[in-house]
Amino acid sequence: MAYSLDDIYIKELPSDAELAMSTKDLRVFYGDHEAVHGVSLPFERFKITALIGPSGSGKSTFLRSLNRMNDTIPSSKVTGEINYRGLDINTSDIDVFEVRRRIGMVFQRPNPFAKSIYDNITFAPRRFGVSGKETFDELVETSLRGAALWDEVKDKLHKSALALSGGQQQRLCIARAIAMKPDILLMDEPASALDPISTAAVEDTMLKLKEQYTIIIVTHNMQQAARISDYTGFFYNGKCLEFDETRKIFTRPKIQATNDYVGGHFG
Ligand SMILES: Nc1ncnc2c1ncn2[C@@H]1O[C@H](COP(=O)(O)OP(=O)(O)OP(=O)(O)O)[C@@H](O)[C@H]1O
Fold it and tell me: Is this entry keyworded Protein biosynthesis (predicted)?
């Protein structure tokens, strides 16, 4: 079935909602191909927003643009606004490394460095000028606690991160992102490569993390979106056709395509 791309419902957040970031008419091109067609979305602070939609609908491209990761793809061009702390960060004079420190990213496949658990966490802060054993010890502990991994690894901090299970490695990657003290965590299908027990651990971790961080997650797993997110955006053919509170998206969506997608009629 072909859906109208003009049928769009984007819920406006209440005027007292605090935004962590928002986009306005964000478009992403790969060469001549426009992969994201003018998406304007708000992201409320200390909430989890899930981005769902069929394969190729532009979710990951949109997500990667939010911390300027798409800049690393030579053919890619991003237009429109990415508003963060009163600034449009989609401009050439912005320090992209600082953007990526404040808006961290966790990828689909756990990608720890071939280093110890301890060094995985201290690596980037060290490069940003953090120093001192006590500071690092504390940073390692708070980051691992934040990612709900401390109890499992506190006796083997100097062992290789690669010896951890997939789920533990992913929580280490979350700890690594937290160690940079970001405001926002972008997560691209962070549990899709994990078994159900590890997935549950990562989901529990995310629910704890939102007390301190704003999370934007791409997921193919609709139960996961329903379980953990406060807001959901449904992407289709490069557009966000519907954005609303998660319970509304999954019970009373306003747009036909959303209804059919969450009902499992296509995917
Ligand atoms: N590095 C790239 N170079 C060129 N085209 C790309 C690149 N990455 C994505 N695309 C194209 O952009 C469009 C959106 O892809 P994207 O991966 O963002 O979608 P998605 O919704 O995240 O899909 P999936 O759920 O399968 O990950 C697709 O047409 C894809 O082929």
Answer: no
Map out the domains of the chain as residue ranges.
9-111+183-262
Residue whose CB lies within 8 A of the most ligand 1 atoms, among 29, 55, 61, 78, for a mutation test: 61
Predicted confidence (pLDDT) per residue in 184-235, tens digit? 999 999 888 888 888 888 899 899 999 999 999 999 999 999 999 999 999 9
> What is the DSSP-derived secondary structure letter of residue 23?
E
Q: Which residues line ligand 1 (CB under 6 A)?
A: 30, 35, 53, 55-61, 73, 235
Strand locations in the chain (E): 9-10, 19-30, 33-39, 42-44, 48-52, 76-84, 87-88, 103-106, 184-188, 214-218, 231-236, 239-245
Contact 65, 30 (CB under 8 A): no
Q: Tell which one of 28, 30, 78 to mutate to probe ligand 1, the residue whose CB is within 8 A of the most ligand atoms.
A: 30
